[in-house]
Amino acid sequence: MSRLTVALDAMGGDDAPEMVIEGVSLACSQGDAFFRIFGDKAQLAPLVAQYDVPDDRYTIIHTDNVVTAEDKPSQAVRRGRESSMGLAIQAVKDGDAHVAVSAGNTGALMALSKIMLRMMPGIDRPAIATPLPTMRGESLLLDLGANVECSAENLVQFAIMGAAYARVVFGIECPTVGLLNVGVEDLKGHEAVKEAAKILKDAPLPMKFSGFTEGDGIGRGAMDVIVTDGFTGNVALKTTEGTARLITTLLGDAFRSSWLARIGYALASGGIKRLRNHLDPNNHNGGMFLGLNGIVVKSHGGATAKGLASAIGVALNMAQNDLNSLIMEDLKNFGGNQVSDDDAQSAGDADRNNNKEQAAAGSGT
Amino acid sequence: MSRLTVALDAMGGDDAPEMVIEGVSLACSQGDAFFRIFGDKAQLAPLVAQYDVPDDRYTIIHTDNVVTAEDKPSQAVRRGRESSMGLAIQAVKDGDAHVAVSAGNTGALMALSKIMLRMMPGIDRPAIATPLPTMRGESLLLDLGANVECSAENLVQFAIMGAAYARVVFGIECPTVGLLNVGVEDLKGHEAVKEAAKILKDAPLPMKFSGFTEGDGIGRGAMDVIVTDGFTGNVALKTTEGTARLITTLLGDAFRSSWLARIGYALASGGIKRLRNHLDPNNHNGGMFLGLNGIVVKSHGGATAKGLASAIGVALNMAQNDLNSLIMEDLKNFGGNQVSDDDAQSAGDADRNNNKEQAAAGSGT
């Protein structure tokens, strides 16, 4: 497998499988990766023809088994290993693909990924990360819901993974990293966030730790990477989406409020289109699962073909730059400096993590 | 004190004391309340003249002591009782005013209010609540940062207080109440939010408990009252502000991007002005402190005179409708049904709460 290969869950997402195959077609025109497409062959064969996916760029692997949007993570783990989603993850595990991409059920994808790929050594919990548009460009926010409760150590590991991502995908040599909090002073927040700040302050890591930021730091782009627990991160992400929808709806009403306003809209439409582009989730699509032994990217369930192609592009970028090796190297440097007897324990870590994963798999979000 | 009386901290807020006195002048034209104004008489006397505050509507009580924006809550508690902020709270405690309003340091105001007014019987922790603009009108969000960690019981008490507020201030007979979470299914979230949902489900309360909502439920106005812990609520509130600022900034850029766009803006400006009005925090100004033996309202530090007048209006509405009696009645009905031996303990509650407050006062946010 010298050529970059994407394992694709063709059956996940609101408009799957058509949106997925259209996305593959788009991705084929943007790069030279190869696609292992998992799903119902009877549906997929006509679609690859319709969207002119070149014959030498894909193979379809048939399965009837599908994880639905309604399936609980525990159900996916019990019954979904042979699904289009499960097989795509298995392909990464078996070395048949560099990355897996799915627009399906997030909780199921996380639970299956944890069980099948297991945690990277030195990482206790995986995180879901996504870039969000800001005043300055984009910032990475994590965790977005893989863990409803997080310890200081979890937050520190998220910071290390997020910073590595920013170096690889954003191309920032020494990214700024901050912790989401209810104030910027040292005394603010709960124990986990205060303790994480203490650890990160002097850590020998290729990042600039910039302390705390409040919720408005997300839109401002206060830091390149903003770290929080999965409960707060999920609420913040969804709040961003809800606020954007509220404002654009009200704006639409404003522009329909009179004939003059309609003409005004027509005149300003170039600039407004650029604004919409900047905010369009399809241009920032991709929830990266970080901390696993393999790269898995979750595309938004309602993504368009363009959005899916963008998620594929991010996944390939992560693979090409070997993000996981970078994270492991940072963890090693960090661990060696911080907790000197960690190395002796590292052999047993994988096993202990595996037990933890199985216990947690049913509660993925 | 038959006339409704407002105790006003004239020295708190970015543009105090001028903004405060202009706000009093505005409030005088909107109602017939009386104002006890606390602060530096030398600065205040010329301002009341300049803004034509009628002589029979106010009295100025001089103090040199001021709580600054930089003061920590613990400093305010030690040194701030004689400040304009502390004296305003004392006036409520002594029965010289129905409500206290301040645009000063939130953490200091909360710490002083807790120490001086103490908790209402049956409430373990106070909450900060604010109405936010939504697709449907407005929803009350609480807690916004009084408590970084909350138990299920705290969340239930917040729900009871929020529902009472919605009945009094929004005028909704049976408000819908929901809990902020990372999903809407029963299994989602941490223990506190799951347990709170179980308790609220069948509680004999004048509200319709509607289960969970995600972050986008805030902008959508999914429920009249949305309850969460102070950490998540603070992040959600600030995220809303940051997103709104991001979008309106980008929109401004869009409208300045060409001459045609500028003309377009001019034509659409009526509708855009209505949009801005709906989103303007000055029209939704006022962080209510709920759960104390007295009504304290925090105006935004950057509020305009109009914003301060709006906060005063909300505070007077709460006093006029005797919000605190309503809350106590609901708590009594709820407690009687839920935990039958609670009543026997209630006499001791006040004392225990008082001790807890003193321990917590230094960590107000």
Instruction: Look at the structure and name the CATH superfamily of the largest domain in chain A.
Output: Isopropylmalate Dehydrogenase
Major protein interface: A-B, 67 and 67 residues
CATH architecture identity of the largest domain in chain A: 3-Layer(aba) Sandwich
Which structural category do the helix and sheet elements of chain A fall into? alpha/beta
Biggest sheet of chain A, in brief? 11 strands, mixed
Q: H/E element string of chain A?
A: EHEHEHHEHEEHEHEHEHHEEHHH
Count the beta strands of chain A: 11
Radius of gyration of chain A: 21 Å
Number of self-contained structural domains of chain A: 2
DSSP helix fraction of chain A: 40-55%
What is the overall shape of chain A? globular
Uncertain ranges of chain A = 339-365
CATH fold descriptor of the largest domain in chain A:
Isopropylmalate Dehydrogenase
Give the class-level CATH name of the largest domain in chain A. Answer: Alpha Beta
Oligomer kind: homodimer
Give the structure's gist in a few sentences:
By secondary structure, the first copy, chain A, is of the alpha/beta class.
